[in-house]
Amino acid sequence: MKRMDERSGIREIKGIGEKAEKIFQKAGIRTIGDLLHYYPRGYEVYEAPVSVGEVEEGHTMTVSGAIYGRVQVAGSPKMQITTLYVKDLTGTLKVIWYRMPFLRNTLARGGVITLRGRIVRKKDGLVMEHPEIFYPSAKYEQKRDSLQPVYPLTAGLTNNAVQKAVRQAMDNMELGEGILPKSVRDSFGLAEYAEAVRGIHFPEQREEFYHARKRLVFEEFLLFILSLRMTKEQEDKVLNPYCFREQEAIGQFLQKLPFELTGAQKSVWREIRQDMTGIHVMSRLVQGDVGSGKTIVALLAMMFAGLNGCQAAMMAPTEVLARQHFENIRGMLSEYEIPLQAELLTGSMTAKEKREAYARIASGEADLIIGTHALIQEKAEYQKLALVVTDEQHRFGVKQREALAGKGLYPHILVMSATPIPRTLAIILYGDLDISVMKELPRNRLPIKNCVVDTGYRGKAYAFMKKQIQAGRQCYIICPMVEESEHLDAENVADYTQIIREAMGRGISVACLHGKMKQAEKDDIMEAFAKNEIQVLVSTTVIEVGIDVPNAAVIMIENSERFGLAQLHQLRGRVGRGKHQSYCIFMSASRSEETRERLEILNKSNDGFFIAGEDLRLRGPGDLFGIRQSGIMDFRLGDVFQDAEILRSASEAAKALLDEDPPLIKPENEPLKKMLEQRLSTSALETTL
After folding, report:
1. How far apart are CA 533 and CA 524, in angstroms?
2. Counting Cβ atoms within 10 Å, is residue 608 exposed (0-12), middle (13-18) or buried (19+)?
3. Structure confidence at residue 514 as a pLDDT band (50, 70, 90)
4. Which of 335, 366, 515, 566 could form a disulfide with 343 if both were Cys (CB 3.0 to 4.6 A apart)?
5. Helices 263-276/294-307 angle, 10° precision
6. What is residue 442's DSSP assignment?
């Protein structure tokens, strides 16, 4: 096989033909570089087997024992369950597999077997679910004490295929020194690039994994921070081209509202007005906890631009949320007699609807435009766009801002974030933005009532939800991703939805939502839920970015120990948005003191900023093998809570590099500069920002 580099195509690897290449491309892997940066999402840790008497609920464990009795297959043709009993000196353990009836023949010989799987509690006690089989048991010793990478998969792509391809790639190329200058590596004790790549994919022990990950996360954060600093320098020079004056209509609008703005809302609105009438173009982040009233502040900014003869655009992450914002804004403009026209622009509109919307936007007839990414497509021509309001998941990247600037204007940017991040980290992460914080909740908001319970409470939880539904309310149930088989996630949610349908009984509509669905299907389900056509929505974490459903009063989060505190708080924010008392049930299968301590923080507090600080305090390297990342920023490896110290170190390194060599032209900084230029030119920042 010929030597390859990171730019080589994936077909250079032996055994990957045209068909396999297309499967890899579905996962975003086109080059060897893509493959090497396709990091494992976790690791199977093959520890010493425990006795049957030592198995613990909620953990993945290995047991060895004798096959006891007959192997049985039962259930419907669609859901056949294979059952086996394993016995040792300490007891007998029930083991089940789904949709694998052929195992009856494989295991019928009896003898000693080693099984590795997750321990769950069923009606008849602890059960090992869908384990990996080592038969004969001696096969387990070959994997003992090793860390086996588990990759995110797509249809047709197996974990074994990714492992094999990565090994071949690393065996047939020189990985080089990477982009970090030696001075930076030495100052912060970072691994060599080749060592880090090998250590992240095939670590022989945990320490090797931690060392590799630290290097790669540091590099990821450093590139991010340097990109922000370079963007900030460009934007600092942009003068405000708009001459905005105070608008009496806004004061009258505020007086007519049935509620008074909180002190935090008034303060942030004052900062936004000062920015929009100031010398430079505004780039501001409004960081507000769930339910703090950010939307009304965004509307005031949009009205301010509109009443000054300009246009404002609000970009939402989903069509269903864009439509909800549009209906709410259009309703308020009409009710309070504000002389502005709202316009909706989304990708699913018909060609005729889009043409008509484009015409109204281009002519200036449309003042406030609400939509999705369709807002920044080529055909969207604005007469005088002066403000763009965007969700943190869709912050405008450099190319997008240039595209808008190319239309003749350079708009103010207002980023709305519902993710509370400790201020020290926010300053680093949002280095190109001024930061406003809204901690105060509106007076009419009832605090969410929380409870942390074990799986034995599930029956009572179902009964409580039925009672709430009978009172007219609606409920969410959140399922985590399945750790061992991520590609089975959608199927598992569907199975669990069927269980909920049976538990709720007739007359209660139950639906499921997961990431494998098409966006249009997700939108239809969310709209039906918003109209109370669906009473119980069983979902994965895709619900984090959803529409406002004030009637939803209960959320139950299954296996809550698998999530970080920040993500749990975001999920909890799906309820508590209306006038009714709302409830959050954290269901946990873990009995560890550490898990109880973490969940008790959420049980006792609804303050996102306090929770973010506690999440930061409690995170440690051990969490990397279990708890889901916070999902706050779209980094490949880094997590702003878990890796807060690495983030601070990367910020320190960025400052030192720019202080010593601002243009990064020294020979040792050239690889870093080249990568930065590539990221900025291809607008790679957009996927992260």
Report:
1. 11
2. buried
3. confident
4. 366
5. 30
6. P
* Ranges of H-type helices in 96-181: 103-107, 138-141, 159-171
Can you tell me the distance from the alpha carbon of 323 to that of 329, in angstroms, rounded to the nearest whole number? 10
CA–chain centroid gap for 606, Å, is 20
- Residue with tokens 């922000």, as numbered in its chain: 228
Which residues 6+ apart lie within 8 Å of 102 measured at CB? none
Query: Global pTM?
Result: 0.73
Site of tokens 């996630």: 489
Residue with tokens 């096989």: 1
Contacts of 168 (CB under 8 A, 6+ apart): 1, 13, 14, 15
Q: Which residue has the tokens 């948005």?
A: 577
Q: Taking each helix axis from N to C terminus, what angle separates 608-618 and 593-604, rounded to the nearest 10 degrees?
A: 160
What would the pLDDT profile of 182-224 be if each residue is shown by its tens digit? 999 999 999 999 999 999 999 988 899 999 999 999 999 999 8
Q: Which of 93, 95, 108, 97 is nearest to 75 (CA)?
A: 97
Using only C-alpha atoms, the chain has a radius of gyration, in whole angstroms, of 27
> Which pair of tokens denotes residue 43?
């690791």
Q: Tell me the C-alpha distance between 601 and 606, whole Å.
A: 9
Q: What is the DSSP letter of 499?
A: H
Give the model's pLDDT for residue 88.
94
Look-up of token digits 């080059």: 31
**Strands 536-539 and 125-134, bridge-based pairing:** unpaired
Cα 627-631-634 angle, rounded to 5 deg: 135
CB 121 within 8 Å of CB 112 = no
Residue 671, burial from CB neighbour count under 10 angstroms (0-12, 13-18, 19+): middle
Instruction: Transcribe 443-482 into DSSP letters.
Output: TTPPPPEEEEEEGGGHHHHHHHHHHHHHTT-EEEEE-PPP
